[in-house]
Amino acid sequence: MFEKILIANRGEIALRIHRACREMGIKTVAVHSEADSNAMHVRLADEAVCIGPAKATESYLNKPAIISAAVITGADAIHPGYGFLSENADFAEMVERHGIAFIGPTSAQMRLMGDKVAARAAAQKAGMPVAAGSPELKSLDEAYVWAKKIGFPVIIKAKNGGGGKGMKVALKQEDIPDAYTLAKAEAKASFTSDEVYLEKFLTHPRHIEIQILADSYGNVVHLGERDCSIQRGNQKVVEETPSPALNESARQNICKIVRKAIQKIGYTNAGTLEFLYEDGKFYFMEMNTRLQVEHPITELVTGVDLVREQIRIASGAKLSFKQEDISFSGHAIECRINAENPLNFLPSPGKIEEWHAPGGLGVRVDSEIYSGYQIPADYDSMIAKLIISSKTRNGAIMRLRRALDEFVILGVETTLPLLQDLIAEPEFLDGTYDIHWLETWMQKYKL
Ligand code: MV4
């Protein structure tokens, strides 16, 4: 097992990883920017290294600085968390070449899944259902041909995109030139290539993702699904498991398919298969090759510590349990709490004047915040995750309402009031929401 792990991240996820390390008797190295000298992840870690200025490109995205910090402190592994360098295959390769373990899949597996066209092909070949789609589009003419073949509406996506950036919908033939040109331009500006492809556009899907763990000996387990349909602008807001949209046979069916497919692909470590689910059918969208923000809801219904398993797998250990050993119990819901104006979502950085996190049975709060902490303006505005579990979905919702009412965050604006109103809505209570529901509801809410 590793003796010392460098945590290449900040905020709540840096703490989350530190906690798993501590429980395993592993020493931790925090890295931080000049803006994060007083951050909780720096205070808790055994050692801390300043890796650069506040700007993420010069610190948390600074590959040589992070690898140097690992070498200097003698860390034998790096955990990338989520965001930043977590899905950067070049970084993983650099880490591997320095004889340091990257806690995640191999750089080759990351590269495969980073190419959305190749990932789609690999997923389909391994037996996962995909939406009707095209290979890379070499010209505008090809876009017309494929759109006609598949049937409108279609969506044009960046080959190296993901997370929803740079996608353009064409409802009819006349929309193709603009959609193609805009998608290409956005891909060129945001990603490593301007290549695009096309898919049948699903008009009212849910976002349902499957968590898997795989060791280096061909053992794969699934840990069920997470429904992440409550989102705005590709930012998830509330996530829950199990999905209120799935019955037991639909769940078993997709989880079985995913497990077999991951075994075929030979993927290792933790991963998430993202599907759209519409009219009773699943469509593979992409695979996230990292630990995800919403991983705690899976932990609460399975009892599996996902970060611990990631570390064990990366150190060469076998999965310590089989699929049959995993039982799913109860319901879990996560709310993301951001330091933002709840109506226009403008960031609200500043000093936390007062902080009271809720507690009690079935209440978990993952956060880096403490009273007196100054939230820097340089990073993501998520400041806490409130994660609730209970035996039933209704029980979880009642508990969530109680916990949101108990939460006190003063000094900055937060999305707490928005969450309180959102969870009282009929479509949330009955679980019938799709990926468009929150944005539609927000439009009325603002009036
Ligand atoms: C789609 C789609 C509809 N049809 N693909 C956005 C994130 C990326 N992973 C996939 N995305 C979408 N792909 C087809 N063929 C709609 C979306 C989409 C979306 C998906 C999940 C959650 C939120 C979303 C918001 C807008 C669009």
Give a short overview.
With 447 residues, this protein is α+β, with helices and mostly antiparallel strands. The chain is built from 15 helices and 20 strands. The longest helix has 18 residues, at 248-265.
Mind telling me which CATH architecture of the largest domain this is? 2-Layer Sandwich
Taking the alpha carbons of the first and last residues, their distance comes to 56 Å
User: How much helicity do the residues have?
Assistant: 25-40%
Structural class: alpha+beta
Under CATH, the homologous superfamily of the largest domain reads ATP-grasp fold, B domain
Oligomer: single chain
Low-confidence stretches: none
Strand-residue proportion? 25-35%
Shape: globular
Give the total of beta strands: 20
CATH topology of the largest domain: the name is D-amino Acid Aminotransferase, Chain A, domain 1
Q: How many domain units?
A: 3
